[in-house]
Amino acid sequence: DADGSAAGLLCVFLLFLDLGSKFHFPEKEQLLRIYENTLPGAIYQLQAASDPDSGTNSVRSYKLSPNDHFEIRVRESDEDKMPFLVLKKAVDREITTSYKLLLTAVDGGNPPKSGILNITITILDINDNRPVFSRDTYSVTLQENSAIGTVVIRVNATDMDEGPNSEIEYSFPTLNNKVHEVFELDQATGEIRVKGEVDFEDTEVYKLDIQASDKGHPSMSANCRVVVKIIDVNDNWPEIEITSLSKNVPEDSKPGTVISLISVTDKDAGINGKVICQLNKNIPFELKPSFKDNMYSLVTKDRLDRETNSQYAITVTASDLGQPSLTASTTLSIQISDVNDNSPEFVINPLDLYIMENNAAGSSIISVSAFDIDTAENAVVSYHIIRGDGTQNDLSSFLNINSATGVVYSLKSFDFETLKTSHFHVLATDSGTPSLSSNVTVNVFILDQNDNVPVILYPVSANGSAEGVEEIPRNVNAGHLVTKLRAYDADMGYNGWLLFSLQEVSDHSLFSLDRYTGQIRTLRSFTETDEAQHKLLILVKDNGNVSLSATATVIVKVVEPKEAFAASDVKNAVKDEEENNVTFYLIITLGSVSVLFVISIIVLIAMQCSKSTDYSSKYLQDTNYDGTLCHSIHYRSGDKRYMLVGPRMSIGSTIVPGSNGNTLVIPDRRRRDSGEVGLCELY
């Protein structure tokens, strides 16, 4: 320092002047050690200079080189002058670690002589300085999920003291379990490292208090704070919470009906915590955001129909906007509950019922069935017959139905000859609230049975029996028409197709019977040997499966020509009256049958036009029937041509022809002049 350097130079100069002098200090240098905390006023004894001279030539004074902290004080005793160093001002080792002073002793001789003592004062350290951190607060960022051992930051503190007083140890001054679980501190270097799991969602900011302590006695310490901000990474999947859910949704719910409330959360922050929600496609539902963030309402978007889809699996998918994006999903099962929105339906409408006449009263004739695509009570169907107006063709009053099964029962036996076609309506009603209903029309076709015996219209005697007498001249030629039998059968089709046959005849060589027309003709001329009276027993039968028949008796009397003409006049008068009556009844009968036939044909044609179902195949259940209404058979008898119209038969089947009871004689246009006629058999 400056004071020490000046004192050294002065000492050298004085030594040069005092060469050879015996005036001196015992030692050239004196060392002193002073603690820096020594209070001013402290006194330290110095070496005294020795001078062999005495009196005025002995040591007179001591001078100390100039300085701010020390001064010299001389104590006299027994002519000795003892120098003492006095601490005038406190010293600080951290400012000056040592002082070098010159103590000069001067005698009283002339010229005066002096001696020099080098004083070295070492300032001893005491622990009077605390450690000092480079910063009071350290801020650092750390990415979450950092690996264990990652260095977060290194704090640094210094101590101006020396030795142990300047050696520093770092520590956490407070016990914070969370900090200790995540971070560790190197006591020697001040490095903070990751020790455990760093989770942004657990703690976003850590505040660590660090203490630096020296090893002095007593130890001194200082504190700083380290703020560790955790940087979020997208490591959390969105979480979907269903706060309310209606598992059963009525199918008549209006669009916009709330089904469920859904909340979505993501523990991440920023864009990593922003979530987008969506539903699977092709479902009648949608998500509507709520006024709160990440809250949604699951509502119906379209009309629901349980009969189309009774259950929906709704998948809610939540995706955050982080990179890479994380996705979570959950599935809701929604059942669509039924309401009564469907009427019962009949598979076939209208229905066709073919029933054989003479059915047993009380027996079932048909079973109707309707289905309802609703469920439970809404699908339970009951059946009722809609009662008609009570007219002649109204069947509803003669029918009953099982309301649970739909089986229809007839309360009476039907007669084809009285009623051929009719219809009734069945109402099907479900058990829903309000109930829905629909009806079906059942068209009834009565099928004919062979239950009517042929009726002989001619000949008929006065007492009503089928007997007649015919007189013919003996001179008639072969082929002469004796008479013609007329018969009628109320049945239809084959059951009403009549055939004539001779059961008994007195002479087979004289008479022939046309099996189709019922005409009786002579086979040859009469001879003198032939009997005058002949009895013919004729059988008339229909073509039913179980054939029914009737018989007629014709008495043929052979008379001489003159008698025949005389008798003929009388008989013709009677016969004309009888034939007029018979013709009247025949016309009425044929007219009635023709009207019924025309009505039946019109009904069948209308039904064929309204639908493609082949009624004829149901009407005639015959293995040989090919579905055609009729066909014609042409044959010739005498001078006339006949056409019989009947059901068409398959190849190989046998046709058993009937009578001309229900025949219509039609003139043949092609041979009108020749007198041929056509016969059309009616059914």
From TrEMBL:
Highest taxon of the lineage: Eukaryota
Compartments, record wording: Cell membrane
Protein source organism: Cyprinus carpio (Common carp)
Domain Cadherin: start-end pairs: 26-133, 134-240, 241-346, 347-456, 471-570
Transmembrane segments: 584-607
Annotated Pfam families: Cadherin, Cadherin_C_2
GO cellular component: plasma membrane
Membrane topology of this protein: Single-pass type I membrane protein
Keywords, ordered alphabetically: Calcium, Cell adhesion, Cell membrane, Glycoprotein, Membrane, Repeat, Signal, Transmembrane, Transmembrane helix
Name recorded for this polypeptide: Cadherin domain-containing protein
The UniProt record lists the keyword Repeat: yes
Molecular-function GO term, any one: calcium ion binding
Signal peptide start and end residues: 1-22
GO biological process: anatomical structure morphogenesis; homophilic cell adhesion via plasma membrane adhesion molecules
